[in-house]
Amino acid sequence: MSCSALANSPASLGPVTDDFLPAPLEQEVRKIYARSPLYGERFPLHDEPLHWSCFREIPLLSKQEIVARGHRAFFADYAEVERGFQEKRFEYEHTGGTTQAPMTVVMEEGWWAAQTERAYRASPILRPLLDRPHRKCVLAPVGCSSNLCPYEDHPFPHRYFDGTVYLNLSSDPFAFPESEWDRIVLELQATKPDVLEGEPVYLSLLARAAARRGVRVPSLKAVILTYGKASVQHGRRIAEVFPAPQVDLYGSTEAGYLFVGEAFRDNSRVIDENAFIELVPWRPAGANGTSPRAGAPDIFQIYVTTRGREAMPLLRYHTGDIVRAFPTGFRVLGREANLHFRPDGSILSPAEIDVGLPDNFACWHYSLVQTGESRWDFHYVAEHGANHREVEEALARVVGGGARVNAFRRRFIAPAASGKFALLKPLAAQQKL
Question: Which of 338, 373, 401 is the last residue of a domain?
């Protein structure tokens, strides 16, 4: 392992060698050990300069371990954290994510705002917005709550925070009634936002609601796709109603913002000021407990080490997300559990589904669900039914291995309990639920 295994830009790492960690990364590791007793208990660290071989021996941190140990394990004196809550020096957020169990994340006051600012600075599209006050509307997953998405059942002016309007109400079901879309679209018009941010499925359905009402938002300078994996179908539907540059912004509540780039351009880059990101070749487990399969050379797991955290710093954190490397940057493929390997060993992700769909196909949302060893169901939400035979044959070719696909048009597709969506649901992922 060497610096070539880091996704960060070389300029952010300084002088490097193949034997020792870059100075900024080693300094961060030492700070994390000093701030959080959890890591020293798991793996003692010597005082000599850190070789890559030693760094690799530091155990990975998982979401399951954070949930099992609890957030208090990160602090030597949790009473100081409780005082920090009272004095507004710390805040907390509950998140479920893939663990389906509540994870409490403690963060420094203002940490998320600083993460966001650095993400904007790393994006050529968003960077100009930092130079002046701007308005933003956010349509987050219903499962999002607390400090990061502080919406409640309050009138519109009381959901306006520092130039940002949170369009959700906490009691919203996913299948918004038309009266709710009336309210959301009206607030969007009233705000005249420079930025529209949201979960891609929600924004796609917002585009449908706005189109039905003949509403345009000419003030928009950018649309940020975040919270979940976006399909080209989502991007096209959103662009038809909100024709502004689209930004792909990836991160998590516990780790912060990690990658940013132009949507569907395969040029996402690490937000160097927020984290160090290791690239580890992905070797997915074989079927029925067999040995891992050989992975593609350009597909990686990512392990995250946060930067500058005082509360709950993460060291070699296994996010469970997979990226593909391109000459132009990275593409986040999605959750490891939600990817599928074809019989020939090649990977199937939402990107392959997008390419394989017929050119004349259009939908607001879809989900490809494996129902048997070689059987799949394709659910989609659209104004009009597609040519099912054409769609089924096209997707069967994409899946490969003699797969049979059945297409179904739906009024809506419900999200998981977390409020997020899976565009691809192989059997292996469903069996873990």
Answer: 338
